[in-house]
Write a structure and sequence with these properties.
The protein is an all-alpha fold. It contains 5 helices and no strands.
Length: 120
């Protein structure tokens, strides 16, 4: 992979992250595709390993846990019992969306830092 192709992949990943962050509802499949592309790029950069500081930043990028379920407090569980699970269901969806957006943003920022290191 040439440096031009690498920068093109980084730009594509940045575009996808922006698209995900602007959407109101994140689909798990789209987040999985973003995560897979990030992992492929991470493996490519580790194999190329142009600089030690870049390799250190690349290894810090973590995967997004798509199948994880958010934790809910006891009070929220109690409210879920009272509302026949509607409150808890909506809270889980909201927390999962927030979790996805937080990790996509974190991953995007890490890739931007790596791109900056590669350009300098």
């Amino acid at each position: 992979m040439t440096m031009d192709e690498l920068f093109r992949e980084l730009k594509d990943l940045d575009f996808q992250a922006n698209k995900l962050l602007k959407s109101k509802v994140l689909d798990a499949e789209i987040v999985r595709q973003f995560n897979d592309q990030s992992i492929r790029l991470k493996q490519t950069l580790i194999e190329l390993s142009p600089q030690d500081d870049v390799a250190a930043h690349v290894t810090e990028i973590s995967e997004i846990d798509i199948d994880g379920t958010p934790k809910i407090s006891t009070f929220s569980s109690f409210l879920g019992i009272i509302t026949f699970g509607i409150y808890t269901s909506n809270l889980r969806k909201f927390k999962k969306q927030k979790y996805f957006k937080k990790l996509v943003s974190k991953t995007k920022n890490q890739w931007i830092a790596i791109e900056f290191l590669l350009k300098s």
